[in-house]
Amino acid sequence: MRAPRLFLSLLLLLALCEVPAVCGEEPPPAPHAAADSAAAVVSSAAASAPAAPRSIEEILRRIDRWVVAIRVERTKDLPLPAPRIAPQIPERLMPPETRDYFQRPSGYATGVLIDREGHVLTSHYNIAGEVRSIEVVLPGGDRRAARKVASAPADDLALLRIEGGEPAAAQDSWEDPPWAERAPVAGRFVLAVGRSPDPRSLTVTEGIVSAAGRNGGRAFQTDAKLNYGNVGGPLVDLDGRFLGIGGFVGHIYPQWGLNSGIGFGTTAATIREVLPSLIAGKDVAVPESPFLGVRAAPDDVDKDGAPILQVLDDSAAARAGLRDGDLIIGVDGERVHTFQQLRRLLYGRKPGEAVKIKVRRGEETLELDVTLGRREQ
């Protein structure tokens, strides 16, 4: 396993050697934002940028001022998830390794200081449960009590506010975090930065953006290792820009687990969208999801499409005339090759939206009008 990580490290070094500042070219402008507006906190207005960083160490030195540690004391945590194989087994009968794997450890999590007034973005999971107190450790070591302002659970975001009245940074030294202007693309190098277990120093793991457009286009996937300590911290590119906030780690997301090679980050664009509501103290509700009402058949390499094992009674699919055994091969004119692709195409739609679904039934090809239903939360 060491060879792939060594290869990736060498690629990171080569990538840093290719930045414009090293080659004598002018570096691209960096995003800059006004601190007085909620939307401007993650705006992408261009401003003069310093020379591009020449090493990961320099990237960490530059972003250190925005990465904070968070300690949460709870009276009660969220319940552990039911085992997938035997969901009827109560928590007390779970194997010890299962309980240990999903048990939230004590210690620090990570957040991002987004303005000098003391607003901190982090993962919603970090402040979930029955919270007794929240403490934020600033980069200089100052410890401040904080409170939850609001959260957006579907995007795994929460906004905290440092209490006490004193600003989190001096006005003459404050700069807004360098949020990325463009959406992440697959293949871009990314660093997952945290401030745990020791709030006095940063941690970093490296990887790439392994897929864009996750969570309905609101998140991206990375193979940089995410864990209970660095979740809620920034995911940073080699220019030192914040691509997003690391999230979707914890026992309420058991299908991914920790350090599994699949991590997720909520994009800067999504943060720009929800931040005004969060700063106003308004939780962002989980959006309603569309529901077709079919179960997938086992994968079949001989079938190019999304095979249906079962059409659920009284579902959108049943009302439109889909049947068990149908093979879905298109949605609104776009070819469907797998059931996973079908899910992605439908995920961005809304309940009540009409779509045209093309199916192959035996030797016959049909196009059916489907009004999507609403998935129960």
Notable characteristics:
377 residues, Pdz3 Domain, 2 domains, six-stranded antiparallel beta barrel, 22 strands, 32% strand, elongated
H-E order: HHEEHEHEEEEEEEHEEEEHEEEHEEHEEE
Helix percent reads: 10-25%
Counted by DSSP, the helix tally is 8
Largest sheet: 6 strands, antiparallel, barrel
Q: Output the CATH class name of the largest domain.
A: Mainly Beta
Globular, elongated, flat, extended or rod-shaped: what is the shape? elongated
Number of strands: 22
How are strands sequenced across the largest beta sheet?
3-4-5-8-7-6
Count of structural domains: 2
Rounded to an integer in angstroms, the radius of gyration calculated over CA atoms is 23 Å
Going by helix content, strand content and strand pairing, the class is alpha+beta
Can you walk through the features of this model?
- By secondary structure, the chain is of the alpha+beta class.
- It folds into two domains: 28-78 and 90-287, Beta Barrel (Thrombin, subunit H), CATH 2.40.10.120; 290-374, PDZ domain (Pdz3 Domain, Roll), CATH 2.30.42.
- The protein is 17% helix and 32% strand.
- The chain has helices at 2-17, 20-23, 56-63, 96-102, 214-217, 268-279, 316-320, 339-347; strands at residues 30-32, 45-47, 67-76, 109-113, 119-122, 130-137, 143-152, 157-162, 189-194, 203-213, 219-222, 234-236, 242-247, 263-267, 290-291, 294-296, 306-311, 327-331, 334-335, 354-361, 364-371, 373-374.
- The protein has a six-stranded antiparallel barrel with strand order 3-4-5-8-7-6. It has a six-stranded antiparallel barrel with strand order 9-10-11-14-13-12. Strands 16, 17, 18, 19, 20 and 21 form a six-stranded antiparallel β-sheet that branches.
- A hairpin with a 5-residue loop joins β4 (109-113) and β5 (119-122).
- The chain is elongated, with a radius of gyration of 23 Å.
- 36% of the residues are buried.
- The model is unreliable at 18-36 and 44-48 (pLDDT under 50).
